[in-house]
Design a protein that fits this description.
CATH topology of the largest domain: Rossmann fold
Number of strands: 9
Structural class: alpha/beta
Helix content: 25-40%
Bound molecules: pantoate
CATH architecture of the largest domain: 3-Layer(aba) Sandwich
Length: about 280
Amino acid sequence: MADRLIYDDEFVARLTENAGLKAFSGGVFVPTMGGLHEGHLELVRAAKGLGDPVVVSVFVNPDQFNDQADFEGYPRRFEADAALAESAGADVVWGPSERDIYPDAFEVPTPDLPRVGTEPGLEEAHRPGHFAGVARVVRRLFDLVQPEVAVFGEKDWQQLQLVQAMVDRDGGPRIHAVPTSREADGLARSSRNERLSQAARRKARAVYLALQAAAAANHPSTAEKMMREALESHGLEVEYAVVRSSTGLRPVDDFSRPSRALVAAWLDGVRLIDNLPMPVWT
Ligand code: PAF
């Protein structure tokens, strides 16, 4: 059985001094907010193939939710999550409390956000404050766990680019990206999918259909139009449906360089995001 870290005041104090988890220094880290599903387990399995120990954190970070109802509705089931993470190969499952991460007496800094987190007009435009919260907790988790490698899913593509840009600028673990895990009909796995009604769940496949349609288009602007049409015709309310450069998420005029179609849309009160690489035309 994996270690489940138990905290007492002394341990919290050591964490605060950025020392408590250094025993795991050099390992592979999978940060999560819990509600583990097959997609997370794929991250843990990928981590297992990269080194050890594999440390999985489960922390629903209040700081990155711009919607209180979303925060309150987020699944919290540490014991079940820990058992799942262990079954996929985690050596340590760490469920810190809010006080462990944000101790009263310790100011946890928010890193300056790299451009990819402030300018593309995507997640940061629709979820104000979200990336500041992500950057803060990710830096804090990296400082506590001190991993050699950290594993992130490609589903949160802009988050992945943000974390990579922070690490490129400030140092930190090597970032290992794992392709998005999908249900049989293509829907990207997400802890929020469980909030969809049965009828909405059937419509949700439109997100992947839209991204596939984009991949068949001959121009980014056509791809964007096709995605919007596919989403709206299935009753989704589109926040964005765009094609951008893969790492900088800048607008693109053609498919001559690596690019990515990215979508955020609401269905049945649930916000769905997804993305797909576009073919490069040489
Ligand atoms: O992707 C997530 O689950 C979260 O944003 C992360 C990276 C665990 C930070 O809370």
